[in-house]
Amino acid sequence: QVQLVESGGGLVQAGESLRLSCAASGSIVKINEMSWHRQGSGNQRELVASTTREGRTRYADSGKGRFTISIDNAKNTVYLQMYGLKPEDTAVYYCNAAIMTSSLPYTFSYWGQGTQVTVSS
User: Fold this and answer.
1) Distance of alpha carbon 114 from alpha carbon 95, whole angstroms
2) In angstroms, rounded to a whole number, what is the distance separating the alpha carbons of residues 31 and 95?
3) pLDDT tens for residues 81-90?
4) Residues 101, 60, 19, 74, Cα dihedral to 10°
5) What is the CA radius of gyration of the chain?
6) What residue ranges in 1-121 does DSSP mark as E strands?
7) Phi and psi at residue 93, to the nearest 5°
8) End-to-end alpha-carbon separation of the chain, Å?
9) Could you tell me the maximum CA-CA distance found in the chain, to the nearest angstrom?
10) What confidence tens digit (pLDDT) does each residue in 20-37 have?
11) Pairing of strands 10-13, 115-120
């Protein structure tokens, strides 16, 4: 019913930038919140940044000052602009969205398949 597709990951050198995108599609009535999470090898999945549909944002300390999350409600798409990437940013980045669909009277949490970000030193 709902699909989240991430894109924009890749292999970059330390100090370079990437912009991740996550587009939601399907029987979407309303998206209340979208967020980015990441999971490195051997690590737990952690929140990177989140945004409400109104544009209220929150950031983890790890990306604060380097990462910017934004949402385009018309396109049902969330972005994560990452500057000054570090090797420690290497992880699979997952998109999450709290979405109300036509089949449910409440929001449900959906996950994308993830996109790999690798930062070399």
Assistant:
1) 7
2) 13
3) 999 999 999 9
4) 30
5) 14
6) 2-7, 10-13, 18-26, 28-39, 46-52, 57-59, 67-72, 77-82, 91-101, 107-111, 115-120
7) -100, 125
8) 40
9) 48
10) 999 999 999 999 999 999
11) parallel
